[in-house]
Amino acid sequence: MSEGSLGAPIRHPIDFNHPDFTDPAKLDEEMRRIFDICHGCRRCFNLCDSFPRLFDLIDAAPSEELDTVDSADFKGVVDACTLCDLCFMTKCPYVPPHEFDLDFPHLMLRYRHMEFKQGRRSKIESQLTETDRNGRLGSLVSGVANWASDTGNKITRPIMEKTVHVHRDAALPKFAGQTLVKKAAENPAQVNAAAPASGRKAVIYATCFGNYNEPDLGLAARAVLAKNGVQTEVTYAGCCGMPQMEQGNVERVAERARSVAAEMMKWVDDGFDVIALVPSCALMLKFEWPLLVPDDENVKRLANATHDVAEYVVDIAKKEGLAEGLGPLDGDITVHLACHARAQNMGPKAAEMLRLIPDTRVAIIERCSGHGGSWGAMKENFEVALKVGKPVARQAAKAINDAAVKGKTRFIASECPLAGHHIVQGIEREDPEAKISEAPHPIKLFAEAYGLKY
C-alpha cells in the first residue's frame, strides 16, 4: 500500500448474498467501525446531511463519543444518504486500498438492503421507484398527469403530499406523450458522412427519464452524434435500477443488470458503443452493475462499452475532431457537474465539451444540488434538499445576475435533469430576481451551438 493511500480508489464486489451482509449484529459492528473513523476525520461535514446528522449524534452523546450513541439512531444517518458517491470519490482519504477499507455509500446501501429484507422500507416509496410502469402510464395520459403533478395545482399536490409523501412544492418531471424510442424510430437521423468521425457506431440507451420524460434529451444527443458522422440507434431495454438501489432492493437491481446487459449484447457484438443519457444510469452500467454481478460477462462487456454522452463527444473531439458548424451561443455557460458524473472518475467532461463551443466562457459548479434522485422530492426531505443545494443556487444566481448587469445571458446547465429542476427551484427560492426557466443538459446547448433541429 502506498503511504497515504495514494493508489487509485478501488471498490469491492457487493456480496449481498452472503449471510453477514444483512446480519444485524455484523452490520452494526461495521457501522460503528466506519462511523468512528468518520467521527475522527469529519472531512465530509458539508457534503450532505448524513454526516452532520452523524456528528450531531456523537456530539450530543453522554461521552461525546460513538460508544454512547444508540444504534437505533443510525437510521437517520442512513436515510439522509442519497448514494451520490461523492464522499467515496472526492473526499474520503480512507477508501480502499487504504487499510481502513472505508466505503460509506455502500455501507448505507447494506443497511437499506437489510431493512428491505426485513420489510421495513416504505411501500409507498417503492411504488415511486417503478419508473417503467409509471412512465408508461404517465405517457399514456401525459396531459392529465402533468396537470396533476404541476406545483401550481392546489388541488392535487396537497393530496399527493398526504398520500404518497411527495412534497407539494417539489418540481416533478413531466411526462412526454410519445417515448424517445418511438420518436427516434419515426424520424431517422441523417448521418453526416463527411464528418471526421464517420464510421463510428453508437446505440443510445434511452434511460427511463429520457424515454418517458424528456425525449428531447435523447434527440439532441442523436443529432449531435449524427452531425459528427456517428451512425446512431436508440434502444431501451429497461431501467438501470438506480431507483430500486436507493430503496435497498439489491436483488432487483442485479436481475435488471443481467437482463438489460443480455439485451444490449446484440449492439455490443455488432461494434456499437453504448451512450447513456443520464449520469446516474451511466454510473450504474459502468461501475455498480459489475460490483453486483461480477460473474456476468455480459455486464462486464457492457460496462467496457458504455460512455456518458459528454464523455463520448469529447472523445470524438480528441481522436477524430468535430464536424464543422459549431457557433457561439448568445451568452456564457455555468455548468453544474452532477454527482454521479463526478463519481465516474472521468473528469469534468460536460465542461470540456462545452468549452469546444467557440467564444463561450464556461464556469463550473462542483457541489451537490441536494436532490438525490427521488430523495429530495419527498415531504420530509425537500427543505433539507434545498438547504444542501443552497451553495449551488447561490453560485448560479450570482452568475445570472452578473451577466444581466452587462446586458448578457447566462445559461445554467446540469448534467442531471432532476438536479436541473431542483437548481431552478433553488434559484427561485434564493434570489427571485435571477430569472431562469430551465437548466438543460449540456448536450442540448451543444446541439443549439450547432444550430441543429431535433
What does this structure look like?
This protein has 4 domains: 19-117; 123-164, no CATH class; 180-318; 325-450. The chain is built from 23 helices and 7 strands. The protein has helices at residues 24-41, 50-60, 74-79, 86-91, 104-117, 123-128, 131-140, 142-149, 156-164, 180-186, 207-213, 215-227, 242-246, 250-269, 279-292, 297-305, 309-319, 339-342, 349-354, 382-388, 390-405, 417-430, 442-450, and strands at residues 201-205, 231-235, 273-276, 306-308, 332-336, 362-365, 410-414. Strands 2-1-3-4 form a 4-stranded parallel beta sheet. It is globular, with a radius of gyration of 22 Å.
How would you summarize this macromolecular structure in one to three sentences?
This protein has helices at residues 24-41, 50-60, 74-79, 86-91, 104-117, 123-128, 131-140, 142-149, 156-164, 180-186, 207-213, 215-227, 242-246, 250-269, 279-292, 297-305, 309-319, 339-342, 349-354, 382-388, 390-405, 417-430, 442-450, and strands at residues 201-205, 231-235, 273-276, 306-308, 332-336, 362-365, 410-414. With 454 residues, it is α/β, with parallel strands linked by helices. The longest helix is centred in the middle third of the chain and has 20 residues, at 250-269.
